[in-house]
Amino acid sequence: MCTYVPNRVFFCKFDFFPSFLISSHVQIVELLLANGAHIDARNASSQRPSDLLRAIPGCKINLLHFTTLRCLAAAAISKHSLPYKREVPKMLEDFVEVH
Fold first, then answer.
1. What is the 3-state secondary structure (H, E, C) of 5-68?
2. Interstrand relation of 9-12 and 2-5 (parallel, antiparallel or unpaired)
3. Is the pTM of this model over 0.90?
4. CB 9, CB 50: distance < 8 Å
5. How far apart are CA 87 and CA 68, in angstroms?
6. In a 3-state reduction of DSSP, which class is residue 71?
7. Are 53 and 61 in contact (CB under 8 A)?
8. Is residue 41 within 8 Å of residue 48, measured between CB atoms?
9. What does the alpha-carbon distance between residue 69 and residue 86 come to, in Å, rounded to a whole number?
10. pLDDT tens string 8-63
């Protein structure tokens, strides 16, 4: 299941991968990525689409093509619990929170 969230963030949760659905899931993800969705934003279960895509057998999406420096910086801030609130604009606070 994929859910769109403002600022082009999408969250996906796949419980299983029936063979006839794998190609359609990959095509949907490719479409979302081509239109600016973030491959590294966490969902409510702290899963990232990039992690979930690795679980799809035969998935050929190159994750590095969709990972930006801005996303890497936000992920590093989150990973290392760096203080950022009130240090960056509110819009960037929201961005860091989903990474």
1. ECCCEEEECCCCCCHHHHHHHHHHHHHHHHCCCECCCCCCCCCCHHHHHHCCCCCCCCHHHHCC
2. antiparallel
3. no
4. no
5. 21
6. helix
7. yes
8. yes
9. 21
10. 444 454 454 455 455 666 777 778 888 888 888 777 787 777 877 877 777 788 88
Reading the block at residue 65, the tokens are 């093509």
The distance between the two most distant Cα atoms of the chain, rounded to a whole number of Å, is 47
What domain count does the chain have?
Answer: 1
Residue type, 44: A
Angle at CA of residue 46, ends 45 and 51, nearest 5°: 110
Q: What is the pLDDT of residues 56-87, one digit of tens each?
A: 777 788 888 888 888 889 889 988 999 999 99
Residue numbers of the domain that contains 83: 2-98
Q: What is the pLDDT of residue 24?
A: 67
